[in-house]
Amino acid sequence: MSDPVRVVLGGAGGHGRWHLDNLRRLTGAGLVELVGVCDLAPVPPADLHGLGTPEQSTDLAGLVARTGAEVTVLVTPIHTHAELAVAAMRAGSHLLLEKPPAASLADHELIAAAARDTGRACQVGFQTLGSDAVAFLRKLIAAGQLGHVHGIGVAGAWERPAGYFTRAPWAGRRRLGGVPVTDGALTNPFAHAVATALAVAEAESLDAVAEVDVELYRANPIEADDTSCLRLRLASGLVVTVAVSLCASRRHEPYLVVHGDAGRAELVYTRDEVTVDPGDTSTHARTDLLENLVDHVRSGTRLLVPLSRTAAFTRVLEAVRLAPEPVAIPAGDQLVDRDSTGAPVRRVLPGVADLTARSAERLALYSELDVPWAPPEQALRVAETEVARYRWHVDLPTTSAPRPHLHPVRTLGGTVVSEVAPADHPHHLGVGIAVADVAGTNFWGGRTYVPGAGPTWRHDHGTQRHLRFARREADALDEHLEWLDQDGNPLLTEERAITARRLDDTAWALDVTFSVTNRTDAPVAVRSSATKGRAGAGYGGFFWRAPGSATNRTVFTEHLDGEDRVNHSRAPWVAMCGTTLDGRDWTLVLTQHDADDPWFVRVREYPGVGPALAWEHPLVIEETVTRRLTTVVADGRLDRVAAARMAARIGRTAER
Questions:
Q1: What is the span of the domain harbouring residue 611?
Q2: Which candidate among 256, 264, 287, 536 keeps its CA 20 to 30 Å from the CA of 459?
Q3: What share of the chain is helix, strand, coil (3-state, %, to 5)?
Q4: Which SUPFAM superfamilies match (predicted)?
Q5: Same domain, residue pair 539 and 435
Q6: How far apart are CA 636 and CA 64, in angstroms?
Q7: 66 by DSSP, 3-state: which?
Q8: Could you tell me the pLDDT band of residue 654, with boundaries at 50, 70 and 90?
Q9: Are residues 508 and 551 in the same domain?
């Protein structure tokens, strides 16, 4: 029988106590010997009962070197994992690294590089991945017993007291002292939910995840999320959703449901239970990951959860790290339990367990499930300033040609420079993409221009339908959409990218790129009313509806002034200015990239501006058409020289 493996424990508090119990079990079995404990505070002898008298130190690398530890169990705060994991491996120790393995993708790469350089094993503490239930489900899916599997949904709802989020300086934090922590429901307590779903889908490499769409919310007064959801689109085409909350009224065992067209299977991963048909439930064995690592060190047994198996999980964690700040759930949507002094001891979201279950069943995000505190909109920020809201699903009449749009859009000084559904044109929806005629379908809204009859009400209105986000960050959105005709048939698919960036103290830039691809088996024609004979009405494409209440409205290019001269002109840029009713001036400077479409402008009837995709002739889309446009949103009234300077600056930025 081999000598026990010498082990150092890094972090004996919190979850480290579970590891102490596990070490006691393995010590009793003669498999390990605890030779050292690294912690900032001395560990009381009572906590080490049955584990001998291991050396205690605050220097992990030195402790590993002095004790000759072969394995380090690292259970320290998330943001310390990279530094300490690298130190332990470079000091000569193999590693059991508690989940999540790292606070960022960059930290994950640092740990991976150290493992490669030292030849040391790094096992990650996703205990559920040591369960035979995962392999059982994989075989079930591969054998086709569920038919074609199109999605996996995960639901989890636990309750946590207020003290859970204040138990340590890093708890409930996204960052600490400028360093990523990435604590939160998805990445820490329910990290197993994400990792298990990826394992069942056999999607654990970094390139296995094609897109991540994240929604973060918080009921507690914390920085991180306590209620969140995500949807992954895997490179295989499979969809995975995870919906979780720490604000349930009681603990509900989290589960995973595999959706197949010939059946479904559920895994309660905390119990290793798989149910294929009602009543057909099997319970599977689970291998302890430290025990597996010990076998690997002594006998070369294959690691169950090497760091490489967690690459896709860390890709998801990185998306959570970069996601916009969690949205605060209004107090009116919460129940708050208080102590005798009135201090909150627990926050509950009524019905949240049912909500997570609906998400798993429908593979839907919270914003798609009619939740009052999760409206389908996203704030765009420049630094800490909210400058716009992107609304991707709104309850609008069919005659408005419903479509995602930006509103309100504001200057850095807070002046609103967009308008939705004004009385003069109810189908004008802030800032977005709108086209009068695509293969006979009206994606602009309102009446359709009919040659010989003029503007006419017809039942020909289409819809731009949001499909998913490929990226969603505080200052950037990448979105997939489809354009459906009046009968719900897809005409076009679209990839839309929106970014916001600061230019100076008084201006920021909104960059919008859209690529539309023909989904039909014949060329698709894009027309404006002008192509049908209505003079001056070339509207269609990117369109900015400014507030109709604005006074002193002007429009100009580098050489032209006024609506009559600018409308239908071609110029590198166009500027529109206005004044609010309380006397605040604003300016928009629009610049096209890689296109020379004529400008459509209105000033007298209403303030609106955008480049026209089709004016003199229809634009025929055989495959894909792409346009990019950047708008400077500025406080104050810029003159021609200042506007030209801004346009030139935007052009130089685009070239870089």
A1: 377-655
A2: 536
A3: 25, 40, 40
A4: Glyceraldehyde-3-phosphate dehydrogenase-like, C-terminal domain, NAD(P)-binding Rossmann-fold domains
A5: yes
A6: 63
A7: helix
A8: low
A9: yes
The three-state secondary structure class of 128 is helix
Are the CB atoms for 276 and 263 separated by under 8 Å?
yes
pTM reported for the whole predicted model: 0.87
**1 has pLDDT over 90:** no
Tell whether 604 and 496 lie within a shared domain.
Answer: yes
State the average pLDDT for the chain: 96
Residue 445 and residue 22: Cα distance in Å, rounded? 65
429: which 2 tokens? 């929806």
CA distance 134 to 6: 30
Q: How far is CA 251 from the centre of its chain?
A: 26
Give the number of other Cβ atoms within 10 Å of residue 13's Cβ: 16
Q: Let me know whether 322 and 463 are in one domain.
A: no
Q: Which residues of 354-391 are buried (b: 16+ CB within 10 A; e: fewer)?
A: ebbbbbbeebbbbbbbebebbebbbebbbeeeebbbbb
How far is 590 from 643, CA to CA, in rounded Å? 10
Q: Is the pLDDT of residue 318 over 90?
A: yes
On whether both 167 and 56 belong to a single domain, the answer is no
The answer on 116 and 158 residing in a single domain is no
Q: According to the model, what pLDDT value does residue 656 have? A: 39
Pairing of strands 541-545, 273-277: unpaired
For the stretch 181-221, pLDDT in tens is 999 999 999 999 999 999 999 999 999 999 999 999 999 99
Residues 343 and 361 in one domain: yes
